[in-house]
Amino acid sequence: MSRQSSSHQRSETDKGTTERAPTQGPTPEPPPQADPEATPDLPAQRQDDTGERDEVPDQEVSSVHNTAAAPKGWRAKYPAVARTVAWTATGLSLALVFLALLLPTQLSLIEPSAFMRIPVEAVFGATLLLMLPSPARRVVAVLAGVVLGALTILNLLDIGFNEFLGRGFNVVLDWILLDDAQSYVKDAFGETAATAAVIGVVVLAIAVLVLMGLAVLRISDVMARNSAVATRTTLVLGTVWVMCAALGVQVAGAPFASRSTTALVQDRAERVRKTLNDEREFAKVAAVDTYGDTPGDQLLTGLRGKDMMFTFIESYGRSAIEDPAIAPGVDKTLKNATKRLNKAGFASKSGWLTSATYGGSSWLGHSTFLTGLWIDNQNRYRTVTAGDHMSLTRAFQRTGAWRTVGIMPGVTKGWPEGKFYGLDHVYDSRDLGYKGPKFSWSTMPDQYTLKAFEHLEHGKKRDKPLMSEIILTSSHQPWAPIPKTIPWSQVGDGSVYKAIQKAGKNPADVFTDPNKVKAEYGKSIQYSVNSLIDYVLKYGNKNTVLVFLGDHQPLSRVSGNNASRDVPVAIVAHDKAVLDRISHWGWEDGLMPGAKAPVWKMSSFRDRFLDAYGPNPGGATAPSSPSTSPKASPEAAPKASAKR
Predict the structure, then answer these.
(1) Which of 633, 624, 636 is closest to 288 using CA atoms?
(2) Which of 28-32, 347-351, 425-429, 470-474 bottoms out in mean pLDDT, i.e. has the lowest?
(3) Which of the following CATH numbers is that of domain 294-613: 3.40.720.10, 1.10.10.10, 2.40.30.30, 3.40.1710.10?
């Protein structure tokens, strides 16, 4: 309804009221009508420097008669607060967008200097938004914000994966690992913590997408209302970016003229392409097997009659032996264990292997060691375990001279891979008879695992020697609480560990403290090594041969940001002839390899081992097959780039 029609209705109403009023006394003269021409035009809105329009009360525009009417709209009522909110919203939107464009992919690189740069993506985006008409501009702004939010989520995943696995997040392969992460949190910190973590991650992801979309839309609207200022600012920033790029200006070792988001998107696209190609190429590589057609009677002739133990110690990496904050206790344990073995008539040699994984995904290390293939991602693992490439354990089965078993306390459900590995029987956590408490992620202490192995397999009478693959899990993160070594006669069904677990440290207190986590990690390795060597000394005999190694380094919080992927490996035997066959390897005596000990790729071990213990030991290593090459893998690079 127009202002004139409103005034007309009010006048008619006043007139009717006057005609009906009782005629007592003289009728007062109506107030003089304001001259519409004399009334200055009042703006319907005010606009401040942020581009916010304040609603002006309707009475200032449409009614000069009712000056007592209350103002409408909180911006008009509290203009100072409105301006503060407007400036704050615009500033936070800008900060959020710049944070997303400059966010590093490693936790250690998140510092103020990382955000003191000009992202070219911001300059390009501002230019595009200034050129578009209003409807298209708002749609593009929201879409750009959602895309930027998605990239931010991927950056956050990169940070987490670099922190725990020493590599960035693979958008094709790694979604399955999020489910493993949830299971790990549940096992280590409880179901409540796992549920809270899942809810928090979902809420965070939605919030990032929504807030980033709103932030870009906010900036777009402000720029449109202040197009002259926005155009000049964009032009200046673009000019500065070009000059700094041409001159190579840097801040804290990174280019001031940043194009990190563009480079990261290109890198992700390239990794996706390589990942998709890798599956096809790796299938061809896995089909080539140096020993695939070797008859069983020509395999492992140098170990006939020996009880073989292939044992993986969780997270047992080079840092355990060389990091000054961890090494003293671990080194002392290894030296004492070597002396005890020597006293009992055993000898040992050790070296280094470079694992295909880091910080986690232990099954990739196990499969790389046993198959002679470089298996550093889930696609490769699925491909090889679905095929018939011969694993080291299957080689023992092929001979017909050994019974082959797997002791897998970390497996809590069906494990069809047991057939691929050539294991006659697999004992998982449900088959080992444990009645005690879990120790965070680890379902049972290593000493109990070994005692169950003795009771179920090794201690029984057999018509052929035993080949066993044993996984020890007590040194799995978060390294609290840690079991204690007890007399073997007291192990029983594991109930004795209830008091030990209850008296242990809280995993949350240990895992979040950089000093405690290193100390407790070292103690867990000492426990695992002592349990294994104690078992060999108590239950081993002249025919016992032990091969034990780590599957990967611990996460970077323990091993350090620039740690290698090396893990220790050792062979222990009572029969001197067993170690004589590997004298040409150059491994060092004892359980603790030194800094100058040979370093091999973990994928090279299978062929070297089969060669050393075949019919012609000490000869040339079997022809190297392309199956040991990591070059086709999209995950071959050990770490993400240090700076974006």
Answers:
(1) 624
(2) 28-32
(3) 3.40.720.10
